[in-house]
Prior knowledge:
334 residues
Amino acid sequence: MTEPPDHGRVHRISVVTPVYRGASTLPALAAEVMALREVQTTKAGHDWQVVEWLLVHDNGPDGSADVIADLGEAFPEARPIWLSRNFGQHSATLAGMASSNGDWIVTLDEDGQHDPGQIGDFVDTALREGSQLVYAAPVNPAPHGMMRNLASRGAKLVFATFLAGGTVRTFESYRLVLGELGRSVAAYAGAGVYLDVALGWVVGRTSHVPVLLRDEGDRPSGYSLRRLLSHFWRLVLSSGTRGLRVVSALGVVFGVAGMLFAVYLLVSGVFGAATPEGWLSTMVVVLLSTGAILFSLGVIAEYVGVAVGMAMGRPPYLIVSDPAHGPLGRRPAS
């Protein structure tokens, strides 16, 4: 078999970090990321290096802007991305992905809980399994407190069980994605779309790599209860029409229940069971009409779902380059 023409080339990594409240954590993270500007070699022999670090300022309440500006002046690879206002973590991440140039994009939180030194493990996993998207799989609880961790696991369980529908089922903010796919997602995803749902629309194969989450220190969380609930609700709304189809299913259930109940009451009446006058007809009408209403709403919801999918920017297809001649086709030089 002929080797791809880019055999042995270095995998160029663009690191994207959305910054909301990172004034106290970014300097230490910068030391780790900038140490990866030199060519690194993974355990499997793949060469890679960080060629740019996109710091997306999401207009937080601390002095992150000054820290980002200082890093941009100190390191040519550190590229500040200034947003006009606070748009949220996912939108800020999309802005950074759209501005990237690397073969691969790594999304990395600002709080220091993710170790940039493990990027090589992500690259190894992607190339070994032919994956376009690799998520971190934490081997220890996130340093957020028991209630928030339980809520996070519960939200992901609900998503995987009821809403995923073939999209990404488990996800983390520490991820590696093929550069051209990440930039395409950033180009078409509409406002309010959950990033991992949008990635799931186009990614063919997803893998996971075990990581150890680190402590965030004394940095206050940027997420209040209201913001976390809003985050989860966006996940629900952008996950497709499966939630809407529940309405149709309930309509069918109520309709069938109404017919079965009517048969039961008629049979009971034949065998002499006494029922209050008018109660039989009232219950049958209520069940059948409720089923008809819910089923009709479900049909309408399906049409709304199609329109919502178009508004979110879900593409009917996505053209990419030959995987054998891109980053997935690169192997260590002999």
